[in-house]
Structure formats: structure tokens, C-alpha cells
């Protein structure tokens, strides 16, 4: 269905904002969004799941909380969503594997934290099915930024003027 991608992201982030109060861990979410409305055709439920997965990871792998910055920008044919955390980061040797099924960086620690190691693999599958892409940049002990891009045809506002 056709939806405004900004609203979809806001829907997920609002839930995380509400959860802050219920957790001992304090994090703050910053939203830096393009002013344009981003109309895209997506499988809404599955795309919500993707954003939810990335947000869950940002919280889970930031033991000291910190700032989670969510950016939404458009290029002339893509939407790019990025989620940056100030968490534990990902070692260089693992960074190409985090999107693999069942891959988890620190097995012992990951077991304690719960989860299956499928979140990113499923997210990648969903984004690819929409013709988009996923990637990550990270520095150990500094933080990670996960990106997703989706194909996008800008709506020509000027045409209506
Ligand atoms: P699940 O999502 O299935 O509950 P999971 O979070 O372990 O379990 P993924 O979301 O697929 O699985 O992530 C795979 C691994 O990548 C994680 O176990 C973790 O080691 C690493 N990882 C993912 N996101 C981050 C992040 N924001 N910061 C640091 N490491 C991360
Ligand atoms: Mg996860």
C-alpha cells in the first residue's frame, strides 16, 4: 500500500519513546527528517518490523543508553533511513557477517541478552524484496549506524503549483 514513510518511522519511534520510562536504561531518540513527505509503496507490516528490529538492536547493544539518532533523507531516486547508536559497536572482522542468519558477534553475551540472530537477516530480506539495500558502518566501543535505502520516485509538488 501507499504510505508516508515518515509516518511509518514516527509510529515505531513513538513506541520506543514510550518504552524509555519503563526501562532502567536511559536513551534519547533524535529525529532528523527531511521536510518532504515520502510517499512509497511498501508492505507496511513488514517494513514496521524492519525499523523495529533496527531500533531494538540500537537499544539492546547500547548498555549505557545514550543518543539514538534517526535520519531520513531522500536522494533523487532513493529514501535513506539511518539509525545511529552510541553502543558497543561491531568489530571489523564481524561487520560483514551481521546480516547472516543466526550470526551474533559475542555468543556468550548474546545468549544472555536473548534473541535468535535473525533480526538483521530478516530485515535484509524484506528490504531487498522492496528493491532496496541495507548496510552498516561501525566502530568498536563508539557506535554503529545501520542504513536502509528504498527506491523512491519524488512526487513533483511543483507540478501542482
Ligand atoms: P534477534 O534480533 O533475532 O533478537 P540479535 O539481535 O542477536 O537477535 P540481529 O539483530 O540479527 O540478531 O543482529 C546480529 C548481531 O549483530 C547481534 O547479535 C549483534 O552482535 C550485532 N549487532 C546488531 N545490531 C547491533 C548494534 N546496533 N550495535 C552492535 N552490534 C549489533
Ligand atoms: Mg536484533
From TrEMBL:
Q: Which domain of life is it from?
A: Bacteria
Q: Where is the Histidine kinase domain?
A: 1-154
Subcellular location(s): the record lists: Membrane
Q: What is this protein called?
A: histidine kinase
**Species of provenance:** Tetragenococcus osmophilus
Q: Which gene encodes it?
A: vicK
